[in-house]
Amino acid sequence: MNNAARFLSIAAVAAFASFGAHADEADASQFATKFETNRTRAEVAAEASTVAQTRSQEPAGSRVVTYKSTADRAAVRAQAAEALRTGQIPSGEFSAM
Predict the structure, then answer these.
(1) Are 83 and 89 within 8 A, CB to CB?
(2) Where are the alpha helices (DSSP H) in the chain?
């Protein structure tokens, strides 16, 4: 019991001493940044609205490029059938063994 009381008293003193290390003003003024500007609030708001109008809501590279084919459907099917018949296109299941 004597060791527990000693440990708790040391912990209490250490905790009390650490409060002084964290002392600061109550309004957290060390985080405040001062800006000097000559622009009005209306000028900044106008600039922000023009940026929003020119920005796209679509992520870059997400649009799919469309392709218009001029090939005849029957001709493409005939070429695919010929390639399959001559062995240029594998068919069926592939076994690596």
Answers:
(1) yes
(2) 2-21, 41-54, 73-85
DSSP 8-class letter at 52 = H
**Could you list the pLDDT tens digit for every one of the 97 residues in the chain?**
578 778 778 887 777 766 665 555 666 666 666 777 788 889 988 888 887 666 666 666 677 677 788 889 999 999 999 998 898 887 777 666 5
In degrees, rounded to 5, the angle at the alpha carbon of residue 38 between the alpha carbons of residues 32 and 39 is 95
Instruction: State the Cα–Cα distance between residues 24 and 30, nearest whole angstrom.
Output: 9
How far is it, in rounded angstroms, from Cα 95 to Cα 19? 71
Give the CA distances from residue 79 to residues 12, 58, 63, 68, 73, in Å, rounded to whole numbers and listed in that order. Answer: 86, 38, 31, 19, 10
